[in-house]
Amino acid sequence: MYSYLKGVLSEKCLTTIVVDCNGVGYEMFVPLSTYDKLPEIKKEVKILVHYSFNESDGVRLFGFYTDEEKLLFRQLINISKVGPKLALSVLSGLSVADLIRAVQVGDISLISSIHGIGKKSAERLIIELKDKVGDISSTSIDKDYLGAATEIIQDAETALLTLGYKRYDIRKVISKLMTENDFSTSEEITKAAIKALYRKRNI
Length: 203
Known about the structure:
Layout: E1 4-12, E2 16-21, E3 24-29, H1 32-35, E4 44-54, E5 58-64, H2 67-77, H3 84-93, H4 96-105, H5 108-111, H6 119-129, H7 150-162, H8 167-180, H9 186-201
């Protein structure tokens, strides 16, 4: 029914947003992967939409910033015992790129680290998605660190993972840092990321 909505972002929180389209406010449920990409309130935004209806919940709209997020969401809800709420949790727990890689290599521990996903659910998710994630166009998911030296970033990620930080949080912070700084070593990235993650945790 809906492909996308283009209008003014009038409200946003971690799980829902409202987009004002010519005076009509459309409320949508969104994953953190979409929330993190949203502009400021009152700015124009284009959100891809998945329309859902059932007797218990009525009409619900789910919003996504990229085609990859929307496609992966639809693949997730087609898996047995995975509803929209859990699918959003999956997309909030891992970036699309990390989830695809985890499925491809069978990383059960990483997927089961997502809130609401246990070991058995992770195993089922990998089995169900393994032959499907290759259909997702990854033109944008590997641009997190465009122009940066991949090796020093990977070393920094490994160090931060060892310290107990979550991969999704690490990639989000490093992506921001790389646009604002010119790092030459993995140590510089690691130290800056730790400071940023500490500030975020104590806001």
